[in-house]
Amino acid sequence: MIKAAIIIERADIALGGAERSVFELASKLSTLNVKVTVLAAKGQMDAKNVKVLCPNASGKRTSLKQFEYALKDHFTRNHYDIIHSTLPLPFADVYQPRGGAYPESIVRNAASYDSKVVSSIKLITHYANIRRSELLNAERVLCTRGSSTVTAALSEYVAEHFRRHYNIDDDRLVTIRNGVKVANKVDTDEAYKLQTQIYTMLGIRQADDAVMCLFAANNFRLKGLTPLIKAMGILTKQKTARPVYLVVAGSGSSRAYRHLAEKVGASDRVIFLGKLRHIQSTLSICDIAVLPTYYDPCSRFILEALAAAKPVITTLFNGASEAFVDKRHGAIIDRPGDVKGLARAIAHFANPANAAEATRAIVEDKLRDKVSILKHGQKLVTLYDSILKRNRD
User: Fold this and answer.
1) Helices 255-263 and 225-237 meet at what angle, rounded to 10?
2) pLDDT for residue 324
3) Do domains 2-179+372-392 and 188-370 have the same CATH topology?
4) Which of 95, 115, 227, 365 has the most CB atoms at less than 10 Å from its CB?
5) Residue 328 burial by CB count (10 A; 0-12/13-18/19+): exposed, middle or buried?
6) pLDDT 10s digits, 220-262
7) What is the CATH number of domain 2-179+372-392?
8) Is the pLDDT of residue 58 over 80?
């Protein structure tokens, strides 16, 4: 059995997809002959395999140096065969950045602002941020010096960023695509209640034969909600095979987006549900998953939609676009700002025949298995084995 430590800054799945992914991975690795201990600076210690090393540190975040010191102290008393880190730490055997390469994430985040002036200011202030600069510099050192750490990119999209920004050696870079926990069954009672709530909020009936698009994210701006609502404005004015509605799920502030929906004449076609506990239940009652993101290393939401056999629409700036075939399982938009292209893609899958064809293709091509956390875990174990063999030799 391999004894592995997985390092994450905060042990709290409520924070987002990165944290949830780590805990799903730890659970799956335990079935693959790997004993995992999750090491976090802060967070919850409900599980036996979670150790919080900086519980008394002030502030919401812990500096990388402080966490690194606590980890080194922990390692003097505890041995692990593999150290797998989501943070750029020099003693890691595997570096798996859940947010992709820092330089690229900074550039793409700035690009998500409509104003070029604001975008330029954000680019400057990102580099002026002390914590972000600390992480950026640590990643640069980890990737450009002669260390033995292997970077495990969540997609080829991310791997290319590491090559471009750091000129990292090929033998220290692998691509292991992100994976998600595949739900065996959906809570039908929860799904029915949610569907009733959605129909009531929209003022429609099941007999109206509406098409439900689902957008799920916490960072509405970065994930492309603005162009999506603008696309809804186009779809509201044109005739589609079935009337199209947008369900927005996530903890982001909705005020500006409600105003935008009113401005483009789509306020009666867009609803905001807030944060949801189980995305699978929501996916089960929606028809299309849409995420016109400006940046995502490999979106869990799109992978979860594919696992649920739903047609998906996203952009080239999402590593999850590598998990499916354009115009077969869904649609890939060249850029988030292509509002007309986004509207055309949604209108295409509003046709029930086109949606059914995509669903059949997803099932036939067994994408459910290909995007599973099991597949992701198996490839990581293979990487662990190769590192252990290298260390023995």
Assistant:
1) 30
2) 98
3) yes
4) 95
5) middle
6) 999 999 999 999 999 999 999 999 999 999 999 999 999 999 9
7) 3.40.50.2000
8) no
| Separation CA 42–CA 339 (nearest Å) | 41
**Token output for 198:** 């959605």
Q: Output DSSP code: residue 177.
A: -
- Each residue's pLDDT tens digit, 68-120: 999 999 999 999 999 999 999 999 999 999 999 999 999 999 999 988 888 88
Burial call 167-183: b when 16+ CB within 10 Å, e when fewer = ebeeebbbbbbbbbbbb
- Start-to-end C-alpha separation, the chain: 19
- The DSSP-derived string for 246-301 is EEEESSS--HHHHHHHHHTT-TTTEEEEE--S-HHHHHHT-SEEEE--S-BSS-HH
Find the mean pLDDT for residues 372-386.
97
Neighbour tally for 120: CB within 10 Å: 12
Length in residues, the chain: 393
Closest of 217, 359, 228 to residue 284, by C-alpha: 359
31-36 CB contacts, 8 Å cutoff, 24+ apart: 31/377, 32/377, 32/378, 32/381, 33/1, 33/2, 33/381, 34/1, 34/2, 34/3, 34/4, 34/381, 34/384, 35/1, 35/2, 35/3, 35/4, 36/4, 36/5, 36/6
Rounded CA gap, 114 and 83, in Å? 41
Share the mean pLDDT of the chain.
93
**Could you tell me the residue ranges of all domains in the chain?**
2-179+372-392, 188-370
Computed from CA positions of residues 23, 25, 27, 29, in that sequence, does the dihedral angle turn out positive or negative? negative
Q: Are 82 and 94 in contact (CB under 8 A)?
A: yes
CATH code for residues 188-370: 3.40.50.2000
- Phi then psi for residue 10, to 5 deg, are -130, 125
